[in-house]
Structure formats: C-alpha cells, structure tokens
Specification:
This protein is of the alpha/beta class. The chain contains 5 helices and 8 strands. The protein is globular, with a radius of gyration of 18 Å.
C-alpha cells in the first residue's frame, strides 16, 4: 500500500486550462496536474533552480524532479500525438492584487494609487484582505514593469486588476504567469475572477 502524498504548495493559477490542436481533431487527452503545471511554471517560466523550486513547493528535490519529469513527458506526448491538454486543478483559491487609494475606494484602480492591496479569494466566493503595502511606484522613479512584477511574485499574486496597464507592465506580468485584468471600475465582489 502506497503512502499518502504530502500536500504541495501551489501558487500558480493558469488563466487557460484547456488546449487543443486546431488543424485536426484531437486524438486523445493529456491531463496535467496542478502540481505539474506549478513545476513547469517555477522552472521554465520563473527560471528557478530545482532546489529552490522544490523549496517553494515544500517537497524534496527528488520529488520535485519526478513531478517536473512527469509534466514534461505529458506535454511532449500531447504535442507529438495531437492530444488535448487539460490542466486539472484542485485549488480554487487565488490571490488578487489591486492598487487603491484606500480599502473602501474601488473607484480609481490604477497602478499609481497609494497602496497595493492583496486579497485572497477562497472557493471563488470568500474575499479576505491579506494585507496592504505602500505602493513603491509613488516614491521611486522606476518603471512599473520593473517593480510591480517582483512584488507580486513575492506575494504569490495570480491576478492584477487595474483600470489601465501599459504594454511593458502587461508583458512583464504575463511573463511571470500573473494575469492582468483591465476593468474601468469595480466593486469589491469584482475581485472574484471567473
């Protein structure tokens, strides 16, 4: 009898979970587990070393190596065989960042507001304020594309909602696996990303 699998820390939440060939009918399906897409994200998107990636997932390095190998094998098989790729996720929790002048004012939500608020969304329903920080863009004379993605990675942000996002910041966020969402105005319940 096998032992129970330890819970892995999963922070990446892909915006797209189904991929299919366009030019021919799919010949099958490859299911990628959330821990496998997390391993791909940490290694191939963020460029971490295996030891550091294993620590982020709170698994041993050999376990991380096995997860990564399985993920890459499934992806390669899907690409070579023409299978659909479906990312299976047990996690419905994610973190949303939004820049505001204060906690109750969702009228202006641009990246140059005084604070960055981090909200945890649980079960696509409960909204909890994790914390807020002073927006470093107010004091520093640097581009948002340099500062904001780093802060979001440190806080495990999955989505950034703003009324406007420059192309540099948008591309930088996407390259880190953080999905920018542009909305002209929101109310608190709009933090739930569907």
């Amino acid at each position: 009898m096998g032992r129970d699998k330890n819970k892995r820390v999963i922070n990446f939440k892909p915006s797209f979970t189904i991929f299919a060939p366009l030019n021919k009918k799919s010949t099958g399906k490859s299911n990628i587990l959330d821990e496998e897409i997390e391993a791909i994200y940490l290694m191939d998107i963020l460029g971490l070393y295996q030891e550091e990636a294993a620590q982020k997932m709170e698994v041993s390095r050999p376990t991380f190596t096995r997860i990564l190998k399985n993920a890459r094998k499934k992806l390669a098989n899907a690409l070579v065989s023409g299978h659909n790729i479906e990312i299976q996720s047990d996690s419905v929790d994610y973190i949303v960042a939004v820049c505001l002048s204060d906690e109750d004012n969702f009228i202006d939500i641009s990246s140059n507001m005084r604070y960055i608020f981090f909200y945890k969304i649980e079960d696509n329903n409960n909204i909890t304020l994790l914390h807020k920080i002073e927006n470093p863009m107010i004091e520093k004379d640097q581009k948002p594309a340099v500062i904001i993605p780093k802060i979001f990675l440190e806080n495990n942000v999955n989505f950034f909602i703003s009324s406007r996002i420059g192309e540099g910041l948008k591309n930088s966020l996407l390259s880190k696996g953080i999905q920018p969402i542009i909305k002209s105005k929101i109310i608190k319940k709009d933090l739930i990303v569907k």
